[in-house]
Amino acid sequence: MAAISLADVGRFLARTRGRNGPDWTDRLAYLYLLMGVLLVLLPVLWMFASSFKSQRALVENDPRLLPYEQAQARLPGIERTLSVFTWNRPDGSTAEVALIAPRGLNAIVVELANPAVQLTVPRSELVRKDVVRPRLENFTEPTLGSAQTRTFNFARYFWNSIFVTVVATLITLVINAMAAFALSKYQFRGRDAMMLVIVTTLLIPPTVILVPLFITVQTLGMLNSLWGVIIPAVATPTGVFLLRQYMLTIPDELLEAARMDAASEWRIFWRIMLPLSLPALAVLGILSVMWRWNDFMWPLIVLTQSEVFTLQLGLSTFKGELNDNTHYLLAMTVLTLLPVTLVFAFLQKYITTGIASTGLK
């Protein structure tokens, strides 16, 4: 079967029903697709834009996309920073003033152009002046360390997540590929029944096996260990099914020819099956990276010591009963999206081929 490229997918999506131009059904279909894209991307766009906002702007639920903040000013003789307003004078002119203190329905202000004179003006004539100010410290303070984020060890959490994701993905690919090779190319009694049992486990909710899985990990002494996060999920029914269906498309004649050349079963698996299954392995690799990197429930159960926290567990320290650092939480969430996005960008050419070929025999 010929490989399917992204160009083929682009030509397929660009087809129109009308002969001389797009038909109304084409426009309706693209409108529907556009709405779906917006529904998926708008929350991500909002999160990215909000990661540059201050905590005060987030608490105020500012609906504007850009990181607006009230302008601030420091004046001679006043130690604290003053908020800046635009004063709409009764004669129609405007002036920028700094608020000294509110007084009933009025406010004591000073003009920035003449800070020596204090004025008392109606508060109804003052309009808050906002300026765009991206808060880059939302990213630098948690990653480089500061007094407010001293409990968040970004370097340690990031390394733990990288270790868990890379090691678990590599082991997942090897274990699932070996199981798929045996279930697709070997003939033995009970093979189909075994595959049926593996697929049936997809119907079992993960929360059902949390308690027995925890007892097993505890018995093996892997609590508060990154291996306790890695080992229990290395064999996945999704991975076995995906790779088996792809390996069924590989001709058995290639394996028979290798056996006639005295190739061992391990060599056949390593030198023939794995290279030919690269598109399906790439798809499973992307899925595994997403599963391991974004996993929160199982690490929360197994890990209780902060030095072995993954990045997802570390993010939970920004939100608690006595602290609310939503600006740091959003900024670090944006950073956690980058590794998964890069993996998807580099392996996306295999996705179409791998998924399209799965299930064809």
What's the short story on this structure?
The protein is an alpha+beta fold. The protein has 3 domains: 6-50, no CATH class; 68-132, Roll (SH3 type barrels), CATH 2.30.30; 140-357, MetI-like (MetI-like fold, Orthogonal Bundle), CATH 1.10.3720.
What coarse outline follows from CA principal-axis ratios? elongated
Would you count the extended β strands for me?
8
Poorly predicted regions are none
Helix count equals 15
Radius of gyration using CA atoms only: 30 Å
By helix and strand content, what is the structural category? alpha+beta
How much of the residues is beta strand, in percent? 5-15%
How much helix is in the residues? 40-55%
Supply the number of structural domains: 3
Architecture blueprint of SSEs:
Elements (H helix, E strand, L loop, with lengths): L5 H8 L10 H27 L4 H5 L8 E3 L1 E2 L8 E7 L5 E10 L2 E6 L2 E9 L3 E3 L1 E3 L4 H8 L9 H32 L5 H10 L9 H10 L6 H5 L6 H11 L4 H9 L4 H12 L1 H17 L2 H6 L8 H5 L10 H32 L4
Antiparallel strand pairs: 1-8, 2-3, 3-4, 3-7, 4-5, 5-6
Helix pairs in contact: 4-15, 5-9, 5-12, 12-15
